[in-house]
């Protein structure tokens, strides 16, 4: 594509060199540059792309987009100065990859918890309806049936547009996407057109990045503020910020709730470890999911599908066939008569939801043993809160390691233990070795008990000192159960 055509989507402050040249690719990582590429120098949270302009030129970049022009120019290179490269890169990528969201219907899901479940179930549902569908999620990206590994909840804007471009070229009619607060704040979704947005809930998370809860909330809200009037904004009225999210949106507002009057109303009629009977807008449906938080997720899926033009009866039929997403309330039954549940819950609110769901089904017939840790180099403030929530709703708690990254596992455990009082401590063990912690929980379990193994869910690694070691909670459980 000609550089002059790519630049039509941004306002330039200054241009040095030819703009009629052909551009073969676009990158914001100098290590990925190939001959003829456009390099966009973005000031990131870890590094400043401006420091790598020379490296990009050495690797073959034909043009540079930056906020500050370098002191020395190369004659055969084109330099374009813009006021904000973080804002520009998404728009440039959208244009370079042929404006993919003008060719498919993109729905974004944002919130603290539930994003993966809702986006994945919508992807599965619309494939069952017979469409080619794309998915952008924490667990894995999909272009219809082709799986593409995911590194972030929301990819960088160039990867994002490349994936969406492939989806459009391969005939996808819909795409469903998790929209993280980081991606909104860093303008990774700039240039994309959404036909709908879904708000799940918002509780404390990612304060290591956003610094305050207010900043975190504003990032989420900005997604809805920017939706066009042709889109829908589906919000959860059971969250106290559900109305706040959509108060300035131009989109058509729709609501869902398990508690109050709304457009898509749900109620749990029966529940067990094999599923629930739900009432959704006065129609009953059996689903293979557990817990009120999942009932809420399913309401969001139902509402979004209806807003996309599907008939309620057809949506309910598919809803009854869907199964939980990997690592989300994944229940495994032991031969000894107890149950282990592997779940991604890694925030105080997610722990509260999962433990409440367990108690709703158990009804006092067994004990709850929780194995939990907290990630290293992330929001430290939630560590004592996670320990408190685990102790409040469990008969026994084993605090362990969970992706310590560059911190010492015992330091993280100590931060969690600091949130507990003397009574709490009587029911708490700390075992840094996660495999040993899971094994201990299984040894302590009696028939009817439930073990919650929280924090990692679908992840199949432990990240220690920058290295990812293979580790899968579900594999460990199955191995222990096989030897019982």
Automatic annotation (TrEMBL):
It holds the Pfam family Mur_ligase_M. Pathway: Cell wall biogenesis; peptidoglycan biosynthesis. Meso-2,6-diaminopimelate binds at residues 378, 402-405, 455, 459. Its main location: cytoplasm. Residues 327-457 form the Mur ligase C-terminal domain. Its cofactor is Mg(2+). Carboxylation is probably crucial for Mg(2+) binding and, consequently, for the gamma-phosphate positioning of ATP. It is found in: Cytoplasm. Residues 109-305 form the Mur ligase central domain. Keywords: ATP-binding, Cell cycle, Cell division, Cell shape, Cell wall biogenesis/degradation, Cytoplasm, Ligase, Magnesium, Nucleotide-binding, Peptidoglycan synthesis. One of its GO terms (molecular function) is UDP-N-acetylmuramoylalanyl-D-glutamate-2,6-diaminopimelate ligase activity. UDP-N-acetyl-alpha-D-muramoyl-L-alanyl-D-glutamate binds at residues 30, 153-154, 180, 186, 188. ATP binds at residues 111-117. It catalyses: UDP-N-acetyl-alpha-D-muramoyl-L-alanyl-D-glutamate + meso-2,6-diaminopimelate + ATP = UDP-N-acetyl-alpha-D-muramoyl-L-alanyl-gamma-D-glutamyl-meso-2,6-diaminopimelate + ADP + phosphate + H(+). InterPro entries: Mur-like_cat_sf (IPR036565), Mur_ligase_C (IPR004101), Mur_ligase_C_dom_sf (IPR036615), Mur_ligase_cen (IPR013221), Mur_ligase_N (IPR000713), MurE/MurF_N (IPR035911), UDP-N-AcMur-Glu-dNH2Pim_ligase (IPR005761). Residues 22-97 form the Mur ligase N-terminal catalytic domain. The modification N6-carboxylysine is found at residue 220. Its EC number is 6.3.2.13. It is an enzyme of class 6 (ligase). A motif (Meso-diaminopimelate recognition motif) lies at residues 402-405. PANTHER family: MUR LIGASE FAMILY MEMBER (PTHR23135), UDP-N-ACETYLMURAMOYL-L-ALANYL-D-GLUTAMATE--2,6-DIAMINOPIMELATE LIGASE MURE HOMOLOG, CHLOROPLASTIC (PTHR23135:SF4). Belongs to the MurCDEF family. MurE subfamily. Catalyzes the addition of meso-diaminopimelic acid to the nucleotide precursor UDP-N-acetylmuramoyl-L-alanyl-D-glutamate (UMAG) in the biosynthesis of bacterial cell-wall peptidoglycan. HAMAP family: MurE. This is UDP-N-acetylmuramoyl-L-alanyl-D-glutamate--2,6-diaminopimelate ligase.
